Amino acid sequence: MSHPLLSETRTASPVIGIRGRLFAASMLGFVALFVVGLVGLFAADISYLDADAFSRVLRSEDFRSAIWLSIWTTVVTTAIGLLFAIPMGYALSRYRFPGHALVDSIIDLPIILPPLVLGLSLLVFFFQTFVGRWIHSNVIEFALQPQGIVLCQFLVSASFGIRAIKLTFDGIDPRFEHVAMTLGCTRGGAFFRVALPMARRGIVVGGILIWTRAVGIYAPLQIFVGDVPGETAVLPTAIFLETSTGDIEVALAAALLMLAMATVALVIVRVVGLAQR
Amino acid sequence: MIRIQNLNYAVGNFALQDVSLHVEPGEYFVLLGATGSGKTLLIESLCGLNRIDSGRISIDGVDVTAVEPRRRGIGYVPQDYALFSHKTVRENVRFGVKLQPSADRERLSIDDDPPEKTVMEMVGVSHLAKRSIRGLSGGERQRVALARALAIRPRVLLLDEPVSALDEQTRDTICRELKRLQRDSHTTTVHVCHNFAEMLTLADRVGIIDSGRILQTGTPQEILQRPVSARVAQFVRAGNLLTANAKSAGRRVELTCDGGLRLTAAVADPPAPDGKVTVMLRPENIQLGAAVPENVAADTTVIEAAVRDVLDFGPTVKVTVAVDATVELHVSLGKKEYNIHPINTGEHVFLTVAPEDVHVMPQ
User: Which one, A78, B56, B203, B244, has least CB within 10 Å?
Assistant: First the structure.
């Protein structure tokens, strides 16, 4: 068994001369520059802070609530995001219909739009349109509610998952499903028994993309659900609030804690989810 | 038995056109055609993976044209095998068995052994049962794909270029095994390939497909010796194809080839029309000697020629001779025959061709 972090597989390495070595060095140079720059940035933050800043974050009721709110909303968002991204990615990959290119482009819109605009659009929809007001009054309240956080995160991040999962299904030859159908599967059976398990790694990547995008947003949340500490303030919102009141140390300490949690989560998901079977 | 009647199916700017053929029960039928001739499209249509535009497909007398792939009783091995990489070898072979209706599952079991076990033993992959698909060689993958298709005891086995990705030695071994398996299981088999030698090894009957049309069906010898057109003759490596003017004379046809060479052919069934025709002389049907053989029949053609080239292919020797400035002929000799009377480049030789070995086709 091998996985991306503990790779045991050996890739083909042809005999190369000095030019080949220079080429490899220049490619790897970019990797080094980026990683060293990023790590240096966070190292500077750590050196700037003392233990007290971290302890103030962990002791703060508001921060603890923001951390918990961030965790559960992003997990729910990722689950709902995958619930949409898997069938959508599959449908866009396997079926051709009139307006396919247009639909494909519309799905990419949240990737291009500033997240703030999505927050504004949600406000307009739920308070200025008949359908939005009806949903708000009769079905579910989103504005100023934690479920509004999930809605914002979902709209901003789902496109990344859909795109990744569509590309994964594009890479799986439909012939696998065809063979399954000759062996006794229905169309749906072939999807669940063959295409879906084969797309596992792409689905994990899609989930990671949805989660990483969802966990960092705060601009549309401030507009649509507000930033009430202990109620609707997620971790990025709380960090923003601390920065605006001038408590840079606490803001930075909270950001680094968030980074550490995210790194641990991503490593676990990568090791478990992307392992070759 | 498989019967395809007037099948039409268009995709992009390619179409299967008015395809009709039948495969007898227990027969090993090879569909031979070049890349892009429509072989895979036809086999996928048989599987029910293409909704055909018109025509009818029946298997064992049942019209399956509108039947889903899973209910057609077909074992399908696609070109790249399409093994499920997230499953082990045993899970791959067992895949279809689990999906059969429970009544059928009993039918699949032999001597209380689960069907996948019996099939894996039969195909020779039992020792790979727990292995992942990723580490298998080409030959092993081919066997696993075959075992997976056979495990559901299909009425019809459809093999799409099953050995074309394998090296020559493995290909020969697998071809022999395929033939043995088919003979033992009496499964009606359609095998698609572009390799002439593969067709000769396996086929009970063969169909030649080109540009979406079936050009000819028959036994390998029928196709080899009596192709219906120059196109089919090219497929079966006719060796010598000449353009000639034909004139019937009783039970014989007198042929004047371009370049002046004159030949006598026996009247074919059905007879080719007089006028412009294509003439096929198979290299193995031409006799070659240093002198005119004695007691030659009156209507046997004797041609004087000069040896241009001698190529030793191991069991056979291919000799190219020039009849005149424009006509070259290829002659195939057995190694034993060649060793008794060796031929050298530049030598003058005499070719004799019996009328029955001159095959005339309409242009």
Answer: B56
Say yes or no: A181 contacts chain B, CB-CB below 8 A. yes
Provide the whole-model pTM: 0.83
The phi and psi torsions of B85 (rounded to 5 degrees) equal: -70, -15
Report pLDDT digits (tens) over A158-205.
Answer: 999 999 999 999 999 999 999 999 999 999 999 999 999 999 999 999
DSSP B68: -
The answer to whether residue A171 is domain-embedded is yes
At A134-155, the pLDDT tens digits run 999 999 999 889 999 999 999 9
Residue A50 counted as domain residue: no
Assigned domain for A235 exists: yes
For position A141, which CATH number holds?
1.10.3720.10
Q: For residue B349, list its beta bridge partners.
A: B305
Q: What values do phi and psi take at B32, rounded to 5?
A: -105, 130
d(CA B284, CA B152): 44
CB contact under 8 A, A182 and B70: yes
- Domain span at residue A94 reads 61-276
Q: Do A175 and B132 touch (CB under 8 A)?
A: no
Residues whose CB is less than 8 angstroms from the CB of residue B130 and which lie 6 or more positions away in sequence, other chains included: B88, B89, B90
Q: How many Cα atoms occupy the beta-carbon half-sphere of B251 within 13 Å?
A: 3
Antiparallel, parallel or unpaired: β B28-32 and B205-210: parallel
Our count of domains for chain A comes to 1
Q: Which of A10, A168, A178, A183 to mutate to test the interface with B (most CBs of B within 10 A)?
A: A183
CA distance B13 to A275: 43
User: Between B44, B95, B132, which is nearest A183 by CB?
Assistant: B95
Q: Is the preceding omega at residue B270 within 30 degrees of 0, hence cis?
A: yes
Verify whether the Cβ–Cβ distance B48 to A173 is below 8 Å.
Answer: no
Backbone angles phi, psi at B351, to 5 degrees: -105, 135
The answer to whether position A77 is within a domain reads: yes
